[in-house]
Amino acid sequence: MSDLFKQRKHRFIERCLKYLRYVLNDHFVLFLLVFIGFLAVQYSQLSKNIPENRLALYLGVFLFLIALLFIGNIATYLERPDKYFLLTKEKEIGQIIQQQTISSLLFGGIIQALGWLLVLPLMLSLGMPVVFIIGLLFIFIAVRVVYLNYRKKELLTKIGINWDVALLREEKRQQSILRFFALFTNVKGISNSIKRRKYLDGFLTIFAKKQENTWKHLFLRSYFRNGDLFPLTLRLLGISLIGLALIPQVWVGVGLTLLMNYLLLFQLLALYGAFDYQQLTLLFPLDKKFKISGLLAVLRLVGGSVLLLEMVLALFIYKEFQAVLVLFVGSLALLYLYLPFKVKSLVDESF
């Protein structure tokens, strides 16, 4: 039984490593090195020159440390058929879950240690006593242990394994990892859900009801009802707005916002294949160019709306007009230069 779960673990890790090489391509690694170096310089200057209003820094440090607590969930590697075919092996599977809980605790401990080392200079610069920092560290470790034990008890009940909860959590864990890789490349095996949001139906009238706008209506409706893409837009927009509002270094905030806009547009390109399963679309009396123009129109509508909100916030916060201009020009370049290039490559790959 132990060998079976080890094989599943290695298979999933190999799958992630296969996608990782697409993430860590030459261009992204070069950008990442430059961006990390820039962040390191800005972080060093921030640690040496603490602003008078320290509330935002205190809040940022504690939110960062709290976020670290939830990294590293229990990896069970359970699959749907196990509920029936491995039912007689519940005791052995329970022992494996116990072992995986310890592994998750150790993995989370490593992540927490790296995170604490990262913010330690800033905490000392803020005037936090060493005794207070050590005490806070032990409190966070205790909270992490209690949290994982609580999660484990939800899986291992007195009458056996709670299969429904265990399977659902493992699917969510693996899907969350795969969705990260999907930000950079096409990933197989990602499940999608459909949810009608009635409060958005009014926006479907943005495009006139004409024959040439058929694909625009379809793509916009698919976007609003997609269980992943619409929430992803809100999350990335939230990160951008928080970065613009809270990051003291102007250019770091602008760089983060442009990166989020790029990741959003790359992910939204998945809309192109949203109706591939529906063969009746081949009967539309429309040229293929209308599908391409419809996708571009919807993506530019979403990207332009995101940019509008970012620009409003940036104009209120930033005094440097150059930074606002770079954000505006960079986002327009993504919408009108990057998007047509990527859509063309999608069309070429579909033939």
Automatic annotation (TrEMBL):
Alphabetically ordered keywords of this record: Membrane, Transmembrane, Transmembrane helix
Protein name from the UniProt record: Multidrug ABC transporter permease
Keyword DNA repair part of the UniProt annotation: no
InterPro entries: EcsB_ABC
GO cellular component: membrane
TM helices/strands, residue ranges: 20-43, 55-78, 105-124, 130-150, 229-247, 253-275, 295-317, 323-341
A Pfam family that the UniProt record links to this protein: EcsB
Native organism: Streptococcus massiliensis
